[in-house]
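DATA SHEET
Item: assembly model
Revision: 1
Owner: S.N.
Input lines:
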Amino acid sequence: MPVISFANAKGGAGKTTAALLLATELAHQGHRVTLIDADPQHWISQWHEMSGALRNITIVTEVSVASLQCHLREMASSSDYFIIDLAGARDALVTTAIGLSDHVMIPVQGSAMDAKGAAQILDLLAFMKDKAGLDIAHSVVLTRVTPVVTTRSLLAIKGLLAQRGVNVLNTPIGERTAFRELFEVGGTLYTLDPAKVSNLDKARENSRALADEVKRMMPMRVVRSGMPRILSFNRPAA
Ligand SMILES: Nc1ncnc2c1ncn2[C@@H]1O[C@H](COP(=O)(O)OP(=O)(O)O)[C@@H](O)[C@H]1O
Ligand SMILES: [Mg+2]
C-alpha cells in the first residue's frame, strides 16, 4: 500500500486538488484509498462532509506528528493506497509525512512556475537523503496547465527540472472548472452532472491519465496474508 503525499511549501500550488483527483480516481477504479487530511485548514475534510460517504474512500482527519505513523500502520491492511494532503508549509508534520512516504508529488503550476515552494520541498528531500540516508522517490506534477502554456514552455520546465535530476509526470493536470467544482459541491468527477459542468469528459480523461501513470509508477503491493497454519492432529477416537 504505497503512501503518496502531496507537498509544496506554498499554499495555492494545487496540492489539495491534485490529491483529491488522484484519490477519487483510484477509488473509482476500485482501489481502497485512505485520504489523510494533514492540512490544518481541512479542505479535504470539508469536501468529505459535503460529499457524504463515498465508495472505497476513507478519510482521516486530525493527524499529528505523533499519530501519523499509527494511522498508516493501523489502516495498512484496509488500504490499497494512502494519499496525504499536506499544508503549504515546511514544518514538522510535512517533514514527518514526507519521511513516511513512498513517493512525494510536488505540484507546480505550469504557468507561474511557483518554484520557491517546490524548491523548498526538493531541498528538504535532498537534506533527508544526505543526513539520514532516506532516498524518497518524488516527482513534480505540473498543474493548472492551460492551452496558453505551450508545449514548448512545458518542455522547457521539464528540461530545467531534469537537469536537477527531478522526474516530471508525463500527465499535467489541466486548469478545469470541474476540478474547482468538486470543492463547491462535493463528490467526485463521476457524481458531477455533465449537463451542468463543462468539459467533464475531458476532466475525467485527465484524472484517469494521472491515476494510470501513478499506478504504473507505484503498483499496489500485493500483501499475502499468511494464513495461520492450522496443524491438525488426528486424535484417536475415544
Ligand atoms: N487544476 C486546477 N483547475 C482549476 N482550478 C484549480 C486547479 N488546481 C487548483 N485550482 C484552484 O486553485 C486554488 C488552490 O488550489 P489548492 O488545490 O487548494 O492548492 P493548495 O492545496 O496547494 O493550497 C483553489 O481555488 C483551486 O480550486
Ligand atoms: Mg491544500
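QC remark: Helices lie at 15-28, 43-51, 65-74, 92-99, 115-132, 151-163, 177-185, 200-217.
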